[in-house]
Amino acid sequence: MDERDDSAVKSRRPSGLRSFGLRSILVRTAVLSWVVVTLALSVFIGIIIPYQEGILEGQLKSTAEVVATSIDQVTVSSIVVEDYSSVIEHCLKVVGERPEVLYLVITRRGGFSLVHRPDGWSYQQLEEWWQPEEERPSGLLMDSELVGQEVYHFSYPFSYSGIDWGWIHIGLSLAQFQEDRRVIYTQTIALGLVCMLAASLVALFFARRVSRPIRQLHEVTERIAAGELEARAEIATGDEVEGLAASFNRMTEALRKSHVELEIRVEERTAELRATNVRLLTEIQERQRAEEAQQMAERELEEQRSLRLRSDRLRSLGEMAAGIAHELNQPLVGVRGLAEHILIGIERGWELDEETLQERMKSVVEQADRMVHIIEHVRRFAREAGKTKVEEVQVNGAVEAGLEMLEAQFRAHGLGLEAELAEGLPTVVVNAYSLEEVVLNLLSNARDAVQAQRGLGGDGFVPEVVVRSLMGDPGWVQVEVEDNGTGIPTENVQRVFDPFFTTKDPDRGTGLGLSVSRSIIEEFGGGLELRSEPGEGTKATISLPAVEQMGD
Amino acid sequence: MSLRVLLVDDEEIVRQTIGDYMSECGYQVETAVDGYQALEVLQRQACDVALIDVRMPGMDGLELLARARQMHPEMSMIVITGHGDPEMESQAREQKAAGFLIKPVNLRQLDGLLQQLESPAHS
């Protein structure tokens, strides 16, 4: 039952009350009440019936006694004197008057008996059973062989003058007795049935009374379990159930209050959570925005960088273009001059011998070739510099190419440019054009430095840049670019390799030159170092790993 | 008598082409590779005209021009500059150069300048 209740609560079936069937309190109480009533009734019947039967038997006995006493009083003297005819007469009279007497036997000691039956009388010698030792009258219910049916057999000892003479036996018909007994049984059973019916009704009524408040309570419990916290048990039975209902109501009220509180708290918490959620969302959005902004800033910075890089490249290109212009201008002077000289000569009819003409034309072709060479080199430089492709080359080639590119410019600006290139150096593995780019960059720096120094107006200052190639530490080939320019202030020596560090005017440099140069050289497994003395000059040294030579 | 011209340029091809041309035109041509050599030549003998490249290592053309003028104030100066060197040009103008030539030199222009200097109106 308890388990069932638990499961009922657990299963929380709000739809109606659960039916407990035969196990319900109603049925149990009703059955119990009925059983109690029935038991009591049975006990009562068990006592009353034998009692009634006893009374009926007593009636039989008293009838037999009356008969026996009358016969005893009338016939005893006749028997003693053996006047059987008067005895028989009297007996027949008695038997005739009383139809319930089925037989009447007078037995003398010794077994001689006078047997009277409704259909006549006889003498008989009867066995010992008819001579009981009992000295007092006694009766019993038995099947009689004498009449072939059940009878009430009554034995009455008779005596005369203190001598026991024999017995008077009377057999009474049980018809009346059985009828009476049947009536008693019938009545009793009928009464019992009525009582049981009444008991059932009463039990049912009683059970209902008892179980109704419990059912109500159950109902309310179910409603509360279903969430109807306002439900209250209204029970006024004045007993423990009412007390239970009151306690239950108090409990429910407490539950409702705590539930309301809980709901309020849940609502508050939910609101808090929602607010937190909103805050988090906002934060996330803000963070996303910040990230986007940062990314944009980074992109902008990157763009700016690439822009600066491009502008730096453009500047290099511009510088280079200027160098190329200078470089091309020189042979162009020759080409133009020689050709125009010939043209004017023809116009003016100057005498021109074959040899001179041939010499001049040869010179024109040479100068044109020089221009082609320069242009071809520039083209290849533009194509190859910056590529990752490396090859085994002589450093002198790249250094000379760089020198060639700037030689004219240096001369045009009145700047000394010397080359001291060692012969027979080991080869290095580099991109020759990238190496040339670095040499060009170092030469432009040197050019700027010596020009700046000249600008300071020192007397007798001769701007001078020297480029050397030499064997450095074993296994290393070095290229030096040394100038007698302004030098780098000590505090800047460490920073000149930082990207975008520059001391020049914005239109003259972005500061990427040295940083890019160093990374190019490092890509070839080498290094780029600067040694500078402010006011004295700067020496930049490129170190490249030499290719090990066979047989060296 | 033909003009005596001093050509100062560190570039051999320039000296060669312009020098040869002026010789053929009948001028007496002297050449110098730099300012110092030019001053040496001028110390020996005065010239009527000096053609000076402004960009030279060591002593540049403007310095040479100033010093040569001190030696021979009557001498005409023609300045040769590269393309796109307006700064030098304006400085040369301040030094009262008689003319300007831009490399690569236009020989007819040079002709014109020299004939102008040669003409009696000028002298």
Sum up the structure in keywords.
heterodimer; A: alpha+beta; five-stranded mixed sheet; 10 helices; B: 123 residues; alpha/beta; Rossmann fold; 5 helices; globular
| Biggest chain-to-chain interface with counts | A-B, 27 and 25 residues
SSE sequence of chain B, one letter per element: EHEHEHEHEH
Calculate the mean pLDDT score of chain B and round it.
86
Alpha-carbon Rg of chain A, integer:
75 Å
Given helix and strand content, the structural type of chain B is alpha/beta
Can you write the helix and strand succession of chain A as a string?
HHHEEEEEEHHHEHEEHEEHHEE
Explain what the structure shows:
The complex is a heterodimer of chains A (552) and B (123). With 552 residues, chain A is of the alpha+beta class. Among the domains of chain A are: 14-229, PAS domain (Beta-Lactamase); 386-545, 2-Layer Sandwich (Heat Shock Protein 90), CATH 3.30.565.10. Chain A is built from 10 helices and 13 strands. Chain A has helices spanning 2-11, 25-80, 84-97, 175-225, 240-348, 354-384, 395-412, 432-455, 490-493, 512-523; strands at residues 101-108, 112-117, 120-125, 138-144, 149-160, 163-173, 391-393, 416-421, 428-430, 464-471, 476-483, 527-533, 537-545. In chain A, β2 (112-117) and β3 (120-125) form a beta hairpin. The radius of gyration of chain A is 75 Å and the shape is rod-shaped. Residues 1-14 of chain A have low confidence and may be disordered. Chain B has a single domain (4-117), classed as Rossmann fold (3-Layer(aba) Sandwich), CATH 3.40.50.2300. Helices cover 45% and strands 20% of the residues of chain B. The two termini of chain B are 13 Å apart. Classes of the chains: A alpha+beta (552), B alpha/beta (123). The A-B interface holds A 325-326, 329-338, 340-341, 344-345, 350, 363, 367, 410-416, 462 and B 10-11, 13-14, 16-18, 20-21, 24, 55-58, 60, 82-84, 103-108, 111.
